[in-house]
Design goal:
about 400 residues, alpha/beta, Rossmann fold, five-stranded parallel sheet, 18 helices, globular
Length: about 400
């Protein structure tokens, strides 16, 4: 009898032990893969936003004068950032030394800032060199691109642009400038945000984000932020066909701007962008300074244009055309660079963007500079017309 009870207890333990061992094996395997992934793709623990003033609801997000930051990323390598006396990546002495040169001020968000790219390899540094090659008069470009510098933040900081007294204002717009058009930090309580450390602010954002999600979605998002998920995405995104298919499967807030028929959410974002753009245009006109706007496609959009084919419900030119119409109707100049990606091999497009992060790398910044230079010297700006 005792022997029978003992066997019964053993069978019960087996039913518990075997699943437990299986779970521990899976967990251990995941742990090994996660450690290997983090070794190959180390995580940047500090963030560039530590050099930004995030709690100014009047002037928007702007850089902290004198702040420096070293980014060490598995995708972009080591990048040094320095925000000089005016809080931008260029020092004011660049303007003081400009003399009679033709002054351009660049504004916009992270692509204008050249996030993840050294300042010397940015479009802002390369563009004046390209323009100088086509003209007898020297050009100086002062970069006021800023992280989170979406449409409203660009408008809030626009006095900084005017203070430089430029001959021309160049505004880079991206899909994220449109989707984040009304984005301003803080959104509700400037005093509370001003008294919190950056870490507390970010943690609060994360907690708020997860509080509004289902446990399943929260778990999915958590796993999506692991080193293993990053490594898998990096491998996946190196394939043009797999990357594009994966990107188009994302939610509307990420990939919806590529659809032929835009969702109500994207329609609202465009209306907000138009509102801030009109205000920026009004200020530029009042100061008597030409405003030149260009739309820079993201990775997926650039690949679709380069391949020349896409599903019938999509149109990679749609957002570019809407922005063009908006700018022209304001009486400003639009540089239509997006169609120029048709002449770029898809393999080259793959090399122009960081696979997972999505920002243009040094090669992508150089391409942007070249396309803008071609348009600026085509005659749309008489002072910059090519003399060759």
């Amino acid at each position: 009898m005792n022997e029978g009870n003992s066997n019964l207890r053993m069978r019960r333990w087996d039913r518990l032990l075997l699943p437990a061992l299986s779970f521990l094996t899976i967990l251990g395997s995941f742990g090994i893969v996660e450690l290997a992934s983090r070794a190959c793709f180390p995580e940047q623990r500090s963030i560039l936003a530590s050099c930004f003033v995030l709690n100014d609801a009047v002037h928007g997000v702007h850089g902290k004068p004198g702040c420096t930051f070293v980014e060490k990323s598995s995708e972009s390598g080591t990048v040094h950032y320095a925000f000089y006396d005016r809080g931008y990546r260029n020092p004011s002495r660049l303007l003081e030394d400009a003399g009679s040169r033709f002054r351009i001020v660049l504004t916009g968000s992270s692509i204008a800032l050249a996030e993840h790219v050294r300042q010397s390899q940015s479009a802002a540094a390369i563009l004046p060199q390209l323009l100088d090659q086509n003209r007898g008069v020297k050009v100086v470009l002062y970069n006021e691109g800023m992280g989170f510098g979406f449409a409203q933040n660009t408008d809030l900081r626009f006095q900084d642009v005017l203070d430089v007294k430029p001959n021309l204002i160049l505004w880079m717009i991206t899909p994220y400038d449109i989707s984040g058009a009304s984005f301003v930090i803080p959104e509700t309580n400037p005093v509370q945000w001003g008294n919190q450390s950056l870490l507390v602010k970010i943690r609060s954002r994360i907690q708020s984000y997860f509080a509004n999600e289902s446990p399943k979605q929260a778990l999915t998002d958590f796993l999506g932020r692991t080193g293993t998920a990053f490594a898998l995405r990096w491998i996946l995104y190196r394939s043009p066909s797999l990357y594009l298919k994966s990107y188009l499967s994302q939610v509307d807030s990420e990939a919806g701007f590529l659809r032929r028929n835009l969702s109500p959410a994207w329609t609202v974002d465009l209306q907000e962008t138009g509102r801030f753009s009109a205000e920026i245009s009004r200020k530029a006109h009042a100061a008597g300074i030409p405003l030149v706007v260009t739309y820079i496609p993201n990775h997926a959009q650039a690949e679709m244009i380069a391949t020349g084919s896409w599903p019938k419900e999509y149109d990679p030119y749609r957002l570019n055309q809407i922005v063009q119409s908006m700018v022209v109707n304001q009486g400003d100049i639009f540089l239509n660079v997006a169609p120029e990606y048709r002449d770029i091999p898809v393999a080259d497009i793959q090399q122009d963007y960081l696979p997972v992060d999505g920002h243009p790398n040094a090669a992508g910044q150089a391409l942007i500079a070249r396309l803008i230079a071609q348009q600026l010297t085509s005659g749309v700006v008489p002072e910059l017309r090519s003399v060759q």
